[in-house]
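Objective 1b: paired records.
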Amino acid sequence: MPIVERKQRTLRKSVSISGIGVFTGQETTLTFHPSLADQGIVFQRTDLLNAPKIIASLDSVYSTPRCTIIGNKKASIQMVEHLLASLRAHEIDNVFIQVSGPEVPILDGSSKDFSQLIEETGIIELSEEKKIFSLQSPIFWSNEQVQIIAIPANEYRLSYTLHYPHCLGIGTQFHTFVLSQEEFVKEIASCRTFSIYEEVVPMMEKGFIKRGGLENAILVKENKVINPEGLRYPNEMARHKILDLIGDLSLIPISFLAHIIAIRSGHTSNNFFAKLLYNQIKMENF
């Protein structure tokens, strides 16, 4: 049975943020608007004819090439995971997001600016309730060296093991935490995406990444972090993987409690597991 945990939430007022897309190189403005209960998170591509809308849900996942892309027959938007992670951590259930381009801005490669924007804008509770479901039986997904497990818990905990044996500058890292607005801001929101220099340069030369750099990612070259300021946490990369996991799992159209244990997962495996987890919770509760 669902646990009636809290009231649904939305933003207090409209607010905008702008930045550059790391893949497209285009400057994009996001404008967030408060939304009514049960509307969910909806994007609108204002730069396209008839301004098509895209619902943020598992059914809308279009592709997962080094990021998560959602879309439909009319439009798509990529790099949604960092924004979705902040919305989930701050328990924003309903918001209408107008987007002036095909990609959510990378900003500094983390969710820090999105979380700060949400906190400065303010959050209001709606009269309608938000139901949260508990996972009742363990489930797992595995593909070669990638494993994701969910076990029953009375909290939403995420644990991640990162293993890069081919790059000593990353190596093996671990982090675990219980998701809450306060802990997300403290432990996860500021953790940046990362790349190995020798792997990402060929992608930049081919035009797949147009605006990647030290201002929006951790870069590891010859087994050393080359960002002048270094890392924000010793295990910042593992923490960022948790950030991505929160964003990808937020596309599950119900809220849930469970302990998610991920080993070497990425956007593609996160999406496969999200569908498995959603089906399991539906089977147990509906």
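Objective 1b, second protein:
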Amino acid sequence: MDDDDSIRDALEDLFLSVGLQARSYATAIAFLDQADPLASGCLLSDVRLPQLGGLELQERLASHGFLLPVVFMSGFADIPMAVRGLKAGARDFLLKPLRDQDVLDAVNAAIELDRHSRLVAIEGGKARLRFASLTTREKQVASLILSGRKNRQVADDIGLSEITVKIHRSNAMRKLGAHNVQDLVRMDRLLCFAISDTVVTAVAPDA
């Protein structure tokens, strides 16, 4: 994102040359007003923007529904500014003049992060739906199995026979689509954290 037409054009040409779609905006306000919050990819933004700076834009993204990774660029070696952006979750901080390969490396890494995050969110949503289909007892048994308890120990813990525990465990595994305890652990992690290649370039001046 840069209000310098030549920089916007150069970035768009660079991305298109490697098969990445790009949308550019002259200001952060225009980005917030016009960009699709559900779009995948990443946000490449200058730090020094008119009206609303890049760091301030970063702070507003979540409240506007954007979950895109952010890559900042700046013509000033402002270390405190870079640190602030990175601490707030920015994926990278590039200094102008930009090197094409540095830009592509940073953007591709951010896109991969976004793709992974979206896949985790999708799988986490599926895991939540499956977990919600369990009965209270099945959830209890699955939880104890995840904690490392054996069937006999689970039976003693909740006052059931071992055969009854095995039935609840089998039903829970079937509903969750799990073949073993390792599958249960993976789903549990998804619950805890519970696509196209597009670069959204937020462009504004570095003056």
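The radius of gyration is 23 Å. Residues 194-207 have pLDDT under 50 and may be disordered.
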